[in-house]
Amino acid sequence: MSVTHDYKASTNTGKIANFVDTRVGASKIVKEFGRKLFPDHWTFLFGEVALYSFVILVLSGTFLTFFFDPSMSHLPYEGAYKPLYGVEMSAAYASTLDISFEIRGGLFMRQVHHWSALLFVAAVTVHMLRVFFTGAFRRPRELNWVVGVVLWVLALLAGFTGYSLPDDVLSGNGLRIVDGMMKAMPVVGTYISFFFFGGEFPGTDIIPRLYSLHIMVIPALIILMVAIHLFMVVVHKHTQYPGPGRKHTNVVGYPIGPVYAAKAGGFFFIVFGIVALISGFFQINAVWNYGPYDPSPVSAGTQPDWYIGFGDGILRLMPGMLGDFSFLWHIPMPWGWNALPMGVLIPLIPMGLLVVGMFIWPWLERSITKDNREHHVLDRPRNAPGRTSFGVAIVIFYCVMWAAASSDLMAVAFSMSLNDVAYVLRFLLIVGPIVGYIVTKRICLALQRKDREIALHGRETGVIEWSPEGAILERHELVDDYRLYELVAFESPEPVPPQPNKKGKISLWERFRASVSRQFFEDRVEPVTAEELAEAEAEFGQERRKLQRSVDQSVRELEGKRDRS
């Protein structure tokens, strides 16, 4: 008969830890997850910045909820900001002014909340760009990519709902744009707007509803998505960049405990400190300058936060008329004529395609490449020129839409007509992605050729040597094994021709897929083979030995002449 002896801790801390461990099995959990390895690379920090900025958002937002009044009931302002004293405004706007001017540390916390929101969306965006350009979304991480896209959309919604809460002129105009988009939907648009705003815009319910979404629903969904994302990272193991010893079957890095945990904890306080420093010295969203929202005035030079700018920008780029052709259509219906404002509906198409394309991209690329293998080692962007150039084209398309949200400020800054600025941006919206795709692909292929040259003939040292035969050459040095592995360890897919179906016929979709595959992979640079590398190393050794013998012979001749003299 076996006897189980309980562990007896000698300290109070040990007794507490032992009590928790024997009840919930914490030591097994820590042992399992503490041994997980994470690669060490600076690009992986973007995900950590997103996580830490979200923590800062929750902390600062919790403080603000104690003092913010999400009510649209009107009252005369009697607070500390004298320029608005006695002005009729909503309780939401008045409480925002009270937080800014009467609550100790309130303005600082508002600034922390706003700056961390901007940083959160920026970090999520850059993190997703890193995942895209390195191919980290491929099997088995397609669903984790979808979770990331959902997280990105939720970040935009969180920013927009929070941005609209103060009920000032700037945020009210943003809601007015949303109201216009809703009402542009045929047949059901007015009903959706009426339901969303609780009546005719602006209604009396929108701020409380946005407040509920902002502090409960959206944060809960973000926390859920973050948990799913981190769970999938643990299950699938972390991706890593190519290097010696790094394969699809292993992970080279540091364990979570204690190395990675200590580094991550220190990095959190660095991010917190930087956000606090920015918040203390750089003012943002000074709502007292705008005044309470009134549907009649529209402030000049206003634009939304950068992450929502692409929606406002594409609306500004859409013309209302092309010559005598109007985009306001009137469609006959059984109950009468219905207005169809295509000037508002057409811009929704590129916005929708952008989001939908992000969701389905892993499967689109798989259909193009016919590659269904598991990938745990990342691509260098230059080694996937098709994907990289397409991504740059989409980024340019997004940035032009984003920049168009400030078209009026550009016109003032550059002393140009607002119409001329719109024409330039429309031209860039169409031509910019095409030029960006072509130029980026040429750059990637040129960098691949440069890597091939360095792998075979070494790097240029800048040292010029003059051989006894009179040849002037630059000395080359072979790169180290780590750098060499990075230069040669990649795959260069070839175009996949159209494949017949079970009936032996080639479908229209398969022809289109083959044409896209040819566009992506027709221009390619062959990776360096092992035979080429061995031949280059042998040739390099022979040249170095021959040059060394020539140098030694010249030295001996000079020494002989000196001795004779």
TrEMBL record:
The reaction(s) annotated as catalysed by this protein in its Swiss-Prot or TrEMBL entry are: a quinol + 2 Fe(III)-[cytochrome c](out) = a quinone + 2 Fe(II)-[cytochrome c](out) + 2 H(+)(out)
Q: Name one Pfam family in it.
A: Cytochrom_B_N_2
Start and end residues of each Cytochrome b/b6 C-terminal region profile domain: 243-446
Record's compositionally biased regions (Basic and acidic residues):
554-565
Quote the subcellular location field of this record.
Membrane
Q: Where are the residues of the annotated region Disordered? A: 545-565
Coiled-coil region list: none
> What Gene3D superfamilies would the database entry show?
Cytochrome Bc1 Complex, Chain C
Name the keywords, alphabetized: Electron transport, Heme, Iron, Membrane, Metal-binding, Transmembrane, Transmembrane helix, Transport
Q: Which cofactor does it need?
A: heme
List the InterPro entries hit by this protein, alphabetically. Answer: Cyt_b/b6_C, Cyt_b/b6_N, Cytb/b6-like_sf, Di-haem_cyt_TM
Which SUPFAM superfamilies does this chain map to? Transmembrane di-heme cytochromes (SSF81342)
**Membrane topology, as annotated:** Multi-pass membrane protein
Enzyme class, broadest EC rank: translocase
- Cite the Cytochrome b/b6 N-terminal region profile domain residue spans from the record: 16-242
Q: Does the keyword Heme apply?
A: yes
Q: What is this protein called?
A: Cytochrome bc1 complex cytochrome b subunit
Q: Which coarse location class describes where this protein primarily resides?
A: membrane
Residues spanning the membrane? 44-68, 115-133, 145-164, 184-201, 213-235, 260-282, 313-332, 344-364, 390-415, 421-440
Give the enzyme's EC designation: 7.1.1.8
Has UniProt tagged this entry with the keyword Transferase?
Answer: no
